[in-house]
Structures are given as structure tokens and as C-alpha cells.
Automatic annotation (TrEMBL):
It comes from Vigna mungo (Black gram). Its EC number is 3.2.1.39. This is glucan endo-1,3-beta-D-glucosidase. One of its GO terms (biological process) is carbohydrate metabolic process. Belongs to the glycosyl hydrolase 17 family.
Length: 369
């Protein structure tokens, strides 16, 4: 009897570990560590900064070896990026995916906690239809390579999407995928469902407000107190746009048969500066959004439509990036400036420059995620 009970207990813990093993994001608050700049602190300093801030999850957009070596032994969990430019090559054959995984993932494990690979970024709904066609085979080949190396249990394969995959998202319950996206999205969702991957969406209330400031309540976008919106179909009230965007993704997934798939926000943030035609891009608004979002994520709660699904999000971005193309806002999403000082105060300090050098002074973290 004891032996039978022990075996059942052992099986339970084995299955439990397997369920947890594939998760790339076990916390609720992560940060995107973009590096399209020529003036950022070295990765070693970034590790110190993140550890002091108690940020345990980051996402990078490549698999830079300097960064991965710097994070060795830090305990910080990383999602690396397989750039859009590699997708066609990865889709051709598993041998190429195998080489990439060995070179950019396997050799850094287990010292560097690589927990996920984002295969491409914002492919479906974008302008390059050829990439739509190679996304799924590329993702499959990367996953198969991880499986053959015995790494698939701990390294999750995903692919973040933009809001461009949706035909509409207001009210949340009406959200659907675009008709031209569905032939590519459905098999991708089927594959990710089989391997236990969540749906990753880049959700920006800032972009929605910037594009239509006349009809969107700024407080609603900033997670401030507002009348919010009412979804008549679900009879649910939304006090902020962030939760409405997450639930819109859940509604779209449900309509195509993937209602149990978890939604994770792979990017969200607010620009602290912008051009004259970029409404809302101010330091005050960026501080308000990011502070309110941290408080909201700290609560570890769900959304109106999925109250039992804890919301997880990666903030965009760690630093302002001076080499990014496009409007001024693109270069001003950072929680920190390029010298490591804070872009605005949401409860911590960073790398503060002196007359000669920069030194790390103690963080004042009032919010723990």
C-alpha cells in the first residue's frame, strides 16, 4: 500500500514538474531589453541593475553571446529572439535549426537561464507574406531541435503577435482574427497548443490613444480612474484599456477553438517623448502608465473575462534606444535613459552618472513583483 501511494505521489510530482518546466515566464512582471542603440551600459551592468530591481524575467530580440554570457549565474530568466531574417533559413530544414539552437542556446545552459525562444516578431498581419508562410515550419524545426537535444521541457518556443492580427477589438467580446490571417494563425495555434505555448500579444494602449485621442479617454488608457467601457455581450465592465486588450485576445482565441490558451503580453509600454502629432507621449503619462501597470500586475489577478488567469506582461522597454528608426516615440519607451539613470520615477533609481564615471547606487524598490 505504501509503495503504491509513493509511486502515485512520485508520478504527481513528475507531471507537476513537466507542466511547470515548459513555462518561459513564471512571474508576472518582465522587461524587454532592447539594444538598438550605440550608448547603452554593458550587459554586466544591466544584470546588476535588474537584480537590484528584483526583475527576474527579460526578453531580448536576438541571442547576443555577450549578453548571454553576462547573465550566467544571475538567476534571471531570458527569452531569446530568433530574428525575422532567419525564419526562411530555419524553415528549410531541421539541421539549420539544430545548428542555431546548439550555438545560441545549448552552449549557454544551464548557467544562463534561457527559458524561451521567440521565433520571429509580429510576423502575421505584417507586410511580408513570405514570412507568414515560413513561420510555422521554422517554429516546428526549432522545437524539434530542442526536443532532440533534450531541452524542450525547459525552453519554450513562441512567436509574439501585434494587434494587426485582429480585425476588430472593441468591445473585447467582438474581437476576431483577420480573415487573411486565419489560414496561417489556425495551424500555428494548433501547434502551440500541442506543445503548451501561450498566445503572446504586443498590446499598447499608448498606440491606440495616439491614433484616436479624440475618442479615447486618456485616463482609461493610463489605468487611471475612469468611467471605462461596458461590454453588453458579456455584461462585463472594463476600467482600463490594458485589460480590455487582453480579453479581446481571449475572445478571438475562443472563436477559433482555443479558449483555454493563456494570453501573455509580450510587449506593452508608453513613450515619454514624441513628435508633435504623437498625442499622449509625455513623461507624466509614461510614468503614470508604467507605475499603474506595475501595481496592477503585483496583484497577480486575472481579467474580467478570465478572472482565474493571472495576467503576465513584459514592459517595453528597459532603455531608450537612440538608433531606432521611425517617429520620436520609438526612441523613448525606456524606463531608463542610455546612461542608466531613470527616465522617470516609478520607485527605483539606476546607474547615475557622476562628473567622471557612472556608478550603481542603491535601488529604492517599493513594488515587488
Amino acid at each position: 500500500m505504501f509503495s503504491s501511494f509513493f509511486n502515485r505521489l512520485l508520478l504527481f510530482f513528475l507531471l507537476f514538474s513537466l507542466v511547470l518546466g515548459g513555462k518561459a515566464f513564471t512571474g508576472t512582471y518582465g522587461v524587454n531589453y532592447g539594444r538598438i542603440a550605440d550608448n547603452l551600459p554593458p550587459p554586466e551592468s544591466v544584470v546588476t541593475l535588474l537584480k537590484a530591481a528584483k526583475i527576474k524575467n527579460i526578453r531580448i530580440y536576438d541571442a547576443d553571446h555577450h549578453v548571454l554570457r553576462a547573465f550566467k549565474g544571475s538567476g534571471i530568466e531570458i527569452v531569446v529572439g530568433l530574428g525575422n531574417e532567419f525564419l526562411t533559413e530555419m524553415s528549410v530544414g531541421e539541421d539549420r535549426a539544430m545548428s542555431w539552437v546548439k550555438e545560441n542556446v545549448q552552449q549557454f545552459l544551464p548557467g544562463t537561464k534561457i527559458r524561451g525562444i521567440a521565433v520571429g516578431n509580429e510576423i502575421l498581419g505584417g507586410t511580408d507574406i513570405q514570412l507568414w508562410e515560413v513561420l510555422l515550419p521554422a517554429a516546428k524545426n526549432v522545437h524539434n531541435a530542442l526536443s532532440k537535444l533534450g531541452l524542450a521541457k525547459n525552453v519554450q518556443v513562441s512567436s509574439p503577435h501585434s494587434e494587426a492580427v485582429f480585425a476588430n477589438s472593441f468591445p473585447p467580446s467582438s474581437c476576431t482574427f483577420k480573415e487573411d490571417v486565419l489560414p496561417y494563425m489556425n495551424p500555428l495555434l494548433q501547434f502551440f497548443s500541442q506543445i503548451g505555448t501561450p498566445f503572446f500579444i504586443n498590446a499598447y494602449p499608448f498606440l491606440a490613444y495616439k491614433n484616436d485621442p479624440q475618442h479615447i479617454d486618456l485616463n482609461y488608457a493610463l489605468l487611471e480612474k475612469s468611467p471605462g467601457i461596458y461590454d453588453a455581450k458579456t455584461k462585463l465592465h472594463y476600467g482600463n484599456m490594458f485589460e480590455a486588450q487582453v480579453d479581446a485576445a481571449y475572445a478571438a482565441l475562443e472563436k477559433v477553438g482555443f479558449g483555454k490558451t493563456e494570453v501573455i503580453v509580450s510587449e506593452t509600454g508608453w513613450a515619454s517623448r514624441g513628435d508633435d502629432n504623437e498625442a499622449g507621449a509625455t513623461i507624466k503619462n509614461a510614468r503614470t502608465y508604467n507605475l499603474n501597470l506595475r501595481k496592477r500586475l503585483l496583484k497577480k489577478k486575472g481579467t474580467p473575462y478570465r478572472p482565474k488567469k493571472v495576467v503576465r506582461a513584459y514592459i517595453f522597454a528597459l532603455f531608450n534606444e537612440n538608433s531606432k528608426p521611425g517617429p520620436t516615440s520609438e526612441r523613448n519607451f525606456g524606463l531608463f535613459k542610455a546612461d542608466g539613470s531613470i527616465a522617470y520615477d516609478i520607485g527605483f533609481t539606476g546607474l547615475v552618472p557622476s562628473s567622471a564615471t557612472s556608478s550603481l547606487i542603491s535601488f529604492k524598490v517599493y513594488i515587488y513583483i
